[in-house]
User: Fold this.
Amino acid sequence: MANTATASVPAKRIRRRYKHNKAALLFLAPWLIGLFCLTLGPMIASLYISFTDYSILNSPSWVGLENYKTMFTEDKLFLQSLKVTFIYVLLSVPLKLSFALAVAMLLNKGLKGLGIYRTIYYIPSLLGGSVAIAILWRRMFGGDGLFNQVLLKFGIVGPDWVSNPKYALYSLVLLAVWQFGSSMIIFLAGLKQIPQEYYEASAVDGAGKIRQFFNITLPMLTPVIFFNLIMQTITAFQSFTQAFVISNGTGGPVNSTLVYSLYLYKKGFAFFQMGYASAMAWVLVLLIGFFTLLVFRSSKAWVHYEDGGKS
Amino acid sequence: MKKGIVLFLCAALIFTLSACGSAGSGGQSGDGGASGGGEGETVELRMTWWGSQIRHELTMKALKLFEEKHPNIKIKAEYSGWDGYFDKLSTQVAGSNAPDLIQMDYAFLTDYAKRGALLELDPYVEQNILNIADHDQSMIEAGSVDGKLYAITLGLNAPGVIYNATVFEELGIEEPKQDWTWEDFQNIAKQISDAKGNGYYGTADVSRTANQFQIMARQHGEQFLEETKLGASKETLTKWFTMWNDMVKSGAATPPEVTAAATESPETRPITLGTAAMDFAWSNQVKTFQSLMKNNDKIKIQVIPHGKDEKKIGEYLKPGQFISGYAKTKHPKEVAMVIDFLVNDPEAAEILGAERGIPVNSKIRKQLKSSMPEEDQMIFEFIDVVAENSSLIDPPYPQGYSEIEKNFRTLSEEIAFGSKPMDQAIDQFIAETNKILGKNK
Assistant:
C-alpha cells in the first residue's frame, strides 16, 4: 500500500517535467534544426569526405587515410602553411592582448570622455575583419603607400611591406593587433571588478605602482586573461580574410602569407581537391583543440579565481 | 486549453520562420520564384564573365539588346576581374549554384568539362538553335573535349608584347620588328631603363606567368604540360628564369616587390602605372590598356620575341575566351540562344567589337573590319600577322593546371627574392609538377 503511494508520486513528477520539456523543445526547434542541418550535418559530411578523393563534381571515392598521410609526409606547402600560421598566432595573440591590457589600464584611470575613447579603440575590431579594411591595409603598406610616405618624411626608405616576403606576414600581424578593441573592452570590465580596497591597502603598506600591477592587477585579471587568450588563439588559428585579400588570394609572395585556412581554401576550391581540404579542416580542429587543452591544463597553475575555488 | 493555444502558436511560428529561411536563401540560386518554368513566362538567366570595365559596359549593352529582342528572357550579370574568377566559379560549382552562362578560358576548359560542369552544346547545334556553320574549324575543335562541344570561342586573340610607343619615340628607340629576338628584347629593355632611370623599368617582369613561359617552351619544340608529365625541359626552365633574373638585376625589368604587387588586371600593371614601357599581354587587351594609359600615351603591340635558332615559332592563335553553359542550368535552350546571339548576331558584333578578340564567325569578321575604329584595326592587323607567323596552339592544359600554375608563380618568386637557389627551386618544381600530372594516368 505504502509502496504504491510513494511509487506513483515520483511518476507524476516525472510526467510534469516532461510536459515542460515539450514546450522548451518546440521553442528550441528552429535552433536545433539549424544546428543539425547547418552545423552538425556538414561536419559529419566533411569528416566522411576527408577520407575520400573528391573533386567537387565527380563523386567522392574512398581513399582512407591517404589525405592525412600525404599532408604530413609529402606536402611541403602544408608544412609552410603551418609555419606561417604558428608565427602569426604566436606573434599576434600576445601582442594583441598586451596592447588591450595596456590601453584598458590607461582608460581605467577614469578620464573624461572615456566612452568616446572606448568606442574609438573598439571600432577597428568591428571593421577589421572586413574585405574593405584589408584592401585599405594593402594600399597603405604597399610600396608607395601612406606608411612609406610618412617614413620618407623622416628620411627612411621603407620596403614594400606587403609584397616583400620578409615583411608581408608582419603587416598581417599588425592588422590583427590593430583589432585589440574587443579584448580591451573585456579587460576593462575585468579591471573594474578589482576592489579598490586592495590597492588602498597595498598603498598603505608602501607598494609602488609596479608592485601593485604584478601582485594585485595581474592575478585578479587572470580569469579574464584566460578567457581572452583562448578566444583570440582560436580566432587567430582560423584567420583567412585578411591574408586572402592582402595577398590577392595567392598566399604570397613566396607563400609567406599562406595561412592554414587560405591553403585549405585553395586546395578545396582552386585545385579541386575537396577531400584533402576536408582532411585539413579536421586537422585544424584537432590542432586548435590541442592548444586549447594545453591552455586549460596550464590554467590551474596561473589562474586565480576570486572565490578561491577551483575552475 | 491555454497550453494548447500556446503550443499551436509555437508550431506556427516555427513553420513560418523556416519557410522564410529557405525563401531567403533561394534568392541566391537560380530557382527563385520568378523564373519558374513553362513557355511564355519570364526566364531569368545568370551570366558571369571576367574583364575590364570596358568589357563590362559593352557586354551589358549587348545583353540589353538581346533582352529587347527576347522580352521573356532576362539576363542577370555577375562580372568581376580575372583574379579570383575561377576560385569563385569553382566555389559556385561546388555549391551547385553556378551561373547559367559562363565565360570560360582555354586553360581551365578541360578541368571543368571533364568534371561535368559544362553543358554539352551539340544537341543545340543539331536543333539549329546554335549556329556554327561560319565558325573557324580549328576554333570548334579548341572548344571541344573528348569530341563533345562545350565552349564557343568568343574572340580570337594572340599573345604579344605591348609597348608604350610614345616613350619609344621620346627616347629615340626603334620600335620592335616582327623578327626581333629575346636578345633584342633584353637590349631594348636595358636601353629604356638606363635612359629613364630612377624607378622606371624597361619591362614588367612576367617570369611568373606560366602562359608566357609556354611560348619559350614551344620555341624549343617542347609542350609545356603534357597529359601525364612535364614536357618542358630543365634547360628551358633555367633559360627562362636566368634571362629574367639577369634583367631584374640590371634594372631592365621590375624588381620583385613591384612585380609581386601587380596583379593580372590591366589597371595594376606597371605599364599602366607609368613605371615600365613594355609588358606581355593578349591582343584583345590592347583596347583596355590604351584607355588606361596616362597622358594619352600610344600603345602598340608586337609579336613575342623569337628564340635564336628556334625549332618553331612560339606565337599562336588562341581562343581568347569561350562562352559555355552550366551543365545544371534549368534553361539550356535559352542558354544556347544567348550564345548564338553573342557570336552570330551582326548587331551584337557591332557592340562587342574586338574587345574580346577577333570574332570567330568569318562573315562577321568581314563585316566588322571596315567599320572598326583605329585601335581595333590595329588588333585585326596584328592577328593577321600572327596568322602568318605562328604555329598551331598547344592542346588544352591537362587536369591539375590550377595547382601547377600556383607552383610556377611560387617558383618565380623564390628565384626573384633569392629565397632558394635557382637550380634547387627548379628541380623541386619539376618533381612536384610530375607528381601532380602523374595522377592523370
